[in-house]
Amino acid sequence: MSTGAPRNIAVLGATGSIGGSTLDVVARHPERFRASVLTAHSNVASLAALCAQHRPDLAVIADPALEGELARRLAAAGVHCDVASGHGAITAAASGALCDTVVAAIVGAAGLDSTLAAARAGKRLLLANKESIVMAGPLLLEALAAGGGELIPVDSEHNAIFQCLPGGRSNLAASGVRRLILTASGGPFRGRSRAELAGVTPEQACKHPNWVMGRKISVDSATLMNKGLEVIEAHHLFGASPDTIEVLVHPQSLVHSLVEYVDGSVLAQLGNPDMRTAIAYALAWPARVDAGVAPLDLAACAPLAFEQPDLATFRCLALAFQALRAGGDAPAILNAANEVAVEAFLAGSLPFLGIANLVESVLAELPSRSVVDVQTLNERDRAAREAARRILRNAC
Ligand code: NAD
Ligand code: MG
Is the full-model pTM beyond 0.85? Predict the structure, then answer.
């Protein structure tokens, strides 16, 4: 049992996959947690239904044209909460007085401003939105230091590493860490050749063998760009150099990542592939609470398999390592180009193998610059998106 008032949780991206899992854990522990702010992009019906269930103090819809409809739906459902709209209102909510904890579960670079605002305001930041730390790692770390709050990773691999380190995000060298080993399921196309990948469809790419996730991260998992973004995320979160981060394919997704120490010990965190474990850990840390996740039956899952990733076929992972080594804003360029490429693939206008080609072309066109501030970074994000769209247009 917790003591005192429940923590007030802002769920940014409440209508998404991580948002839904978060609200499931929150609802299991009303004495500990309360969803005080819910936000969504444009799914107004879904946001209103979540408000009716969780009774927040504030609901925010990113699309300003939908604010009136949200207010009408809430009134019809007898829900009395403040209503706001627009990107700025989400950013304001992330740093405002209505929450002490922020779950950053917006997808893509659209989550950057609210993630930074929560960090600057010293909130407990539960980071699922990996794109924001990939884009702006040094700025996010600065904002965290200035705000004095904690960052607990929600991405399952980083949550696993956090659990296997002695002090969470501790100094790796001082803790005797030799390597961080990120596991990857390999996605739905593991073992396929490039020729076999040429004609795969968005539906096939979004059918992940182990996890149910939003469409963007599902495509990233199929290209292994997701693992590439996670390598960059691990570099920033744990201060690990690129040479100390390895990727190991583990198709069952039961070992969520591992930490190797200089004495030869390897610590791993295991569990069923259900994001509620990582979310519950991050919400309650340093305590542990029931997440509603079924116990792991290792005998039923044996044997566990591990293999090296195929970087020649899944080139996005190699490109992410390349961007990390280039440093500066290269990861932000990589991320922006990938967002445009994934959108085009999902829209049926770019073949699967074209995703890596497009990212590679944009990285070549915009050599890395140092990260100065958010404004410059956003300009570079825009330049990378424009370059990607132009290359796409010229290719058609
Ligand atoms: P999703 O597509 O299911 O949900 C995205 C949420 O963000 C929705 O609530 C949507 O309304 C909101 N959103 C989208 N665009 C927005 C915008 N422009 N402004 C404001 N809100 C916007 O995605 P998801 O799978 O829940 O993933 C969310 C984030 O968590 C991603 O960064 C993803 O990489 C990360 N993540 C997800 C998982 C998973 O299992 N789903 C695991 C690890 C990390
Ligand atoms: Mg992950």
Answer: yes
